[in-house]
Amino acid sequence: MPRLPEPEPEETSYDRKVKIKEEKIRRRLDGKVILKGDEVPWEQSRQGLTKTYINEENWDQVSVPDWEMFIQRIIKHSGCHIHQGGLAIFVLEGEGYSIVDGVRYDWEANDLMVLPIKPGGVEHQHFNLSDDIPAL
Q: Residue 70 CB: number of other CB atoms within 10 A?
């Protein structure tokens, strides 16, 4: 009886992991480096007015996949929400405060707030102190 050829191996989870890693490397080398602000629209959401530069929708186009980068315009306050943490928030303009897990933290332009990584996440909400000028 003639010997039949070995069947082609099925793709394994390891094979898929290698492909994903190779794709991430390609994106880091070939992805967009400049994202023009005038090409990114402002959008109203339940968290406020935001301009999202990087998120899951364009990770395949940018040189830093897995990041999220956006500007939030806070007129009065953002929505109260929870993140896992490990989030850096840089204040571009304005002054206000954030309530982070029940504690108030005041901020102004050029301040950086870093939310800690916590099981169950970090509840936070941002408030603008100006009646006339939005905080970014």
A: 13
Torsion angle defined by CA atoms of residues 87, 69, 18 and 7, in that order, rounded to the nearest 10 degrees: 120
Percentages helix, strand, coil for the chain, rounded to the nearest 5? Answer: 20, 35, 45
Q: Which of 106, 59, 50, 108 is nearest to 81 (CA)?
A: 50
Q: Beta strand 69-73 with 81-83: parallel, antiparallel or unpaired? A: unpaired
Q: How far apart are CA 70 and CA 53, in angstroms?
A: 5
Give the separation between CA 22 and CA 54, rounded to whole angstroms. 20
What tens digit of pLDDT does each residue of 71-95 get?
999 999 999 999 888 888 999 999 9
* pLDDT (mean) for 18-31: 84
**Which spans in 8-78 are helix H?**
13-30
Tell me the residue ranges of DSSP E strands in 9-132: 43-45, 48-54, 69-73, 81-83, 87-90, 95-100, 103-108, 112-115, 122-128
- Structure-token pair, residue 86: 């490990």
| CA dihedral over 41, 43, 48, 53, signed as positive or negative | negative
